[in-house]
Design a protein that fits this description.
6% of the residues lie in helices and 62% in strands. The protein is built from one helix and eight strands, in the order βββαβββββ. Strands 3-2-1-4 form a four-stranded antiparallel beta sheet. It is globular and about 55 Å long.
Length: 114
């Protein structure tokens, strides 16, 4: 399960406003590679939506079936907020529902695939 924890007003490349939802996964225990000690964390990601601000605000706290998974991507620079150190990453986190239903477009309408 993932939980909607927040929403953000964003702007697309063509300057159109939209709402993104911030999602957070379940509690995880991760072992530090440097100290060997465990710490608690949760995976987070954002996803775009078609909701208005009032609807997005009402979704905070809602739980959705699925998980936040690691997806490999082209390398990019990331600045660690706490210390300002710049590192290179080659992954991102994205939401995946538990069950993905195939859809097809028929005469401009979405339909579930057989």
């Amino acid at each position: 399960m993932v939980t909607v924890t927040n929403y953000h007003l964003r702007e697309s490349k063509d300057k159109k406003p939209f709402i993104s939802l911030e999602l957070q996964g379940d509690l995880e225990m991760v072992q530090s590679m440097q100290t060997g000690r465990f710490y608690a964390t949760a995976r987070k990601c954002s996803m775009s939506s078609t909701f208005n601000e009032a609807t997005a605000k009402g979704l905070i706290g809602k739980q959705i079936a699925g998980a936040i998974v690691r997806v490999e991507c082209e390398p990019y620079d990331y600045t660690i907020p706490e210390g300002g150190e710049i590192i290179q990453l080659a992954h991102r986190w994205e939401y995946r529902p538990d069950e993905v239903k195939a859809v097809r477009v028929v005469e401009g309408n979405l339909q579930l695939a057989d």
